[in-house]
Amino acid sequence: MLELAFQKIPSQTNLILHSDQGWQYQMKPYQKMLREKGVRQSMSRKGNCWDNAVIENFFGIHKTELLYLQDFTSMEHFKHELVEYLDYYNNLRIKSKLKGLSPVQYRIQALQSA
């Protein structure tokens, strides 16, 4: 899977790949492939589920609000809907934890206050 991804990703793009500490991510050949491509490896701390809590929460919401609500007719259809959803999630969907603002609105407000 990593080799297929690397066919589409240019080298030296300063990407960060985050994972848990599964044995496959700790293998030297895997880590070497990342280094050669210029990808920085990030792993959760051992036994600390909180490291992934934010993204796990997002994926739960994403499944409920997009994936489980429709059938996709093709990969292109899915990609289109995903891009639309990400725009909605970041720019329009308000969250009570963000004082009733969308993530983008909240970040702009926080930056202006700093």
TrEMBL record:
Residues 1-111 form the Integrase catalytic domain. InterPro entries: Integrase_cat-core (IPR001584), RNaseH-like_sf (IPR012337), RNaseH_sf (IPR036397), Transposase_IS3/IS150/IS904 (IPR050900). SUPFAM superfamilies: Ribonuclease H-like. Coiled coil: none annotated. Pfam families: rve, rve_2. PROSITE patterns: INTEGRASE. This is IS3 family transposase.
